[in-house]
Design the sequence.
């Protein structure tokens, strides 16, 4: 039993089965998710007998920070975490004027197969549990003495491919008796698993949705993103519109700019037709070099021209500010280098 991945009601049921009073559930939940306690023995509000019973099959220490890389060009920190089973995941801590944001992982590896993304190069190893997602936040807060005010599910893995654990993570991290992080301060980035976008929309939770689009036509998207063989662009946009309607939110479309392949005038026209008429935003992203991907990134001037053309067609557009370019801060890059022994510890 992983009590860190249980919500408060589930904890009550578990503890009742042990012959304990239901009020113990809140004590344990707050200790784990509000006070950031990492040992059952440190839960001094519990009786010795209960602590002994929990210690028989509980270990709250699921994750540790293996290594940090601090950027020399900005305030970002790239983090490698080691899980209890020795698997490696990664994240990025970013400092903004409004506070600290943490990009966290939802899987060990990824099976989506996007050709320009390092996360998927070693395939999917396993899903992360809700508590392993929570612990990425708690460990960073403890290590740096800070409060994480925004979370982006954009590290290793496809969040909607680990749907059940991700929505459970939302319930736990949003609980008023725990971290109490507003769902409006969480962004979920997906390659476009249409069925799960609809599932998430029906929950009517106001999590921000970011869709990795990266192409305006299906034939090219299929080349760089195998998920496009399951869902065409129009299906993804339809699901995005439904999500926007159900949650009263703006949908961000992430668009990695690949010179002469997805930034032509024809692409501009197609994007204008696809993304007009609902609350949408395009985030243009500089391409980071990934072994095996032959596409060439656009320069800053080329991206500004693309932005201007899209804006003239009434679309909301920004160019993502590159953080941690000197520390392999893009999804999966540092983990792959660690696994292939390309970084020195």
Sequence:
């Amino acid at each position: 039993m992983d009590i860190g991945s249980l919500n408060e009601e589930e904890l009550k049921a578990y503890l009742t089965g042990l012959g304990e009073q239901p009020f113990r559930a809140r004590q344990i939940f707050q200790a784990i998710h509000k006070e950031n306690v990492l040992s059952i023995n440190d839960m001094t509000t519990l009786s010795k007998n209960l602590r002994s019973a929990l210690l028989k099959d509980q270990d709250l220490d699921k994750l540790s920070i293996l290594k940090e890389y601090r950027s020399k060009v900005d305030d970002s920190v790239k983090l490698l975490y080691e899980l209890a089973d020795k698997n490696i995941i990664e994240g990025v801590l970013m400092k903004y004027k409004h506070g600290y944001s943490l990009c966290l992982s939802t899987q060990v590896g990824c099976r989506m197969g996007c050709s320009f993304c390092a996360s998927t190069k070693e395939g999917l190893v396993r899903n992360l549990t809700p508590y392993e997602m929570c612990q990425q936040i708690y460990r960073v807060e403890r290590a740096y003495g800070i409060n994480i005010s925004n979370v982006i599910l954009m590290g290793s893995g496809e969040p909607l491919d680990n749907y059940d654990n991700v929505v459970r993570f939302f319930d736990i991290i949003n609980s008023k008796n725990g971290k109490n992080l507003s769902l409006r301060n969480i962004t979920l980035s997906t390659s476009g698993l249409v069925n799960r976008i609809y599932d998430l929309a029906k929950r009517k939770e106001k999590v921000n949705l970011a869709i990795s689009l990266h192409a305006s036509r299906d034939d090219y998207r299929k080349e760089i993103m195998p998920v496009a063989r399951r869902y065409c662009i129009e299906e993804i946009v339809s699901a995005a519109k439904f999500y926007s309607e159900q949650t009263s939110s703006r949908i961000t479309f992430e668009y990695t700019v690949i010179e002469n392949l997805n930034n032509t005038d024809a692409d501009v026209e197609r994007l204008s037709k696809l993304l007009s008429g609902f609350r949408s935003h395009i985030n243009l992203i500089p391409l980071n070099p990934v072994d095996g991907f032959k596409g060439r990134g656009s320069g800053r001037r080329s991206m500004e021209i693309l932005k201007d053309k899209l804006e003239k067609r009434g679309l909301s557009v920004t160019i993502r500010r590159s953080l941690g370019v000197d520390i392999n801060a893009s999804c999966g890059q540092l983990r792959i280098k660690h696994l292939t022994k390309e970084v020195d510890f």
